[in-house]
Structures are given as structure tokens and as C-alpha cells.
Amino acid sequence: MLVHSSSTDLSSRTLRFLTGQLAARRAKIGTRWRRLAVGRQALLALAHLRCGDTYAQLAAGFDIGIATVYRYIREAVEALAALAPSLAEAMRTIREKAFVILDGTLLPIDRIAADSPYHSGKHKRHGMNIQVLADPFGRLLRASPALPGSTHDLTAARHHGIIDALTEAGLKCWADKAYQGAGGPVRVPFRGRRLKGWKRRHNTSHAKIRCAGERAMATLKDWRLLRKLRCSTNRITDMVKAVHVLHHAST
Predict the structure, then answer these.
(1) Is there a single domain that holds both residue 41 and residue 128?
(2) DSSP characters for 189-241?
(3) What is the pLDDT of residue 215?
(4) Which tens digit of pLDDT belongs to each residue from 104-154?
(5) 148 strand-pairing partners
(6) Residue 171 lies in a domain
(7) With 109 labelled, which of 63, 119, 168, 220 sits at a CA distance of 20 to 30 A?
(8) Domain span including residue 69
(9) Is 110 found in the same domain as 135?
């Protein structure tokens, strides 16, 4: 097997942050010895999350077993996921914004045709539905837990309590046509391809506002692991939470 070194586009600040979290976790559980030092474990986890390096690649690069790589990454992801804000905590930040942008995205997964709950008819592929809240500048405020890809965006937003939380806070929210019927503060464009007059102008201005939310989507997809997930679907929520925490730690 040939082994080569690699690099990530993350700052040393991100590495120090994760190293501190893992060091605190080791102290809490009373770890005496590990094959890798805490800083190396943090680097391993970042290489997996940011670059999408496989367990086999990481095992060869760090000279440890694949099972050890799995345990180290899972420990790091769980430590980070525990720091992710809940919807109630995120709403305290969102209330300070003029408005928010709500949108859904599909994180592709490696499932087969038989796994129908995970197949998105809209995207024509298997994946997990994530609801994203962004501020007017496209900064990621919160990413929801993952639901099967067949879940409609409006259904997912209601399931997570996002619509109710926005209504209670009285915040203006811009969303696409998938959220028709959400009511409350959620503003959506008019349906139809041949709109004229003020309705067409409304849809144009609406799209200009809502396009900022694509930056939040790009924030998630910058982490290559989320471009094609090959782990258990039960772990994807924690993966998204970990990425969210690391993103804010690096900015």
C-alpha cells in the first residue's frame, strides 16, 4: 500500500478547538493511554470530516487499525455534536436578525433502490433531508436533525418545530415554493411559470433575498464528507451537528 501526506484548508484554530474538546473528554472519562495523542486524534477527525478520507486511508496514514479510526472519529463527532445549539438556543440568536431564510437540502447517501424511505423524488437520488436556517447574509444559524430523503421540506420543518418557533417569535422568514401553506411568518413566491406584472416582480425580489441562503448550504457542502455519506443513517444527525460546531469554531 502506498501512503502519502495530505492537507486540509482548515485553520490551526479549528484544530486547537477540537483538541481542547477531546482533551476535556479524556479527562472526564479518565483515559490513561491512547495510541494517538489528543492532537493527532483531532487531526484525524478533521481529515475525515473536511476531506472525506476513508477509514482505510486514515488507518494507513496514522499507522493505526481501522477499528481504532472508527472509535476515534465517533468519539470526536459525539463530543462536537453535544455542543450544537438546540432550536430554542438558536432562536435566541435568530430573534436579533431582521429576518431569516429557511431552505431544505438533501445530503446524498449510499443506499439502494429498495431503501425507498430515503429516496427523494425531487432530487432523483437517495439522501437525508436537512432543514437549514440562515441569516440575511447567508451565515449558517442552524441545521436540523436529518430525516429520510422522501420527507417533504414543509413536513420536515413542521416536524422539527421550526414553523411554530418562527411564528411564536414573530420573525419574517423567506422560503421557496416547497413551503407553500406553511402560514405564519413564512413568505413564499407565487406559483406559476407565466406570471406577469407585480406577481412576477415579487418573485424576482423574493428570489434575490432567498439566494443568500445558498451560502449556508455551501457551508455544509464544503465539508466533503457531507457530499456523499457512507455511514449509518442514525449517525448523520451527529455528523451535521459536528460540522456546524466546527464551522463556527473556525470563523
Answers:
(1) no
(2) PPP-SS--HHHHHHHHHHHHHHTTHHHHHHHHHTSGGGGSB-S-GGGHHHHHH
(3) 86
(4) 999 998 866 556 788 888 878 889 999 999 998 888 999 999 999 889 999
(5) 128
(6) yes
(7) 63
(8) 12-81
(9) yes
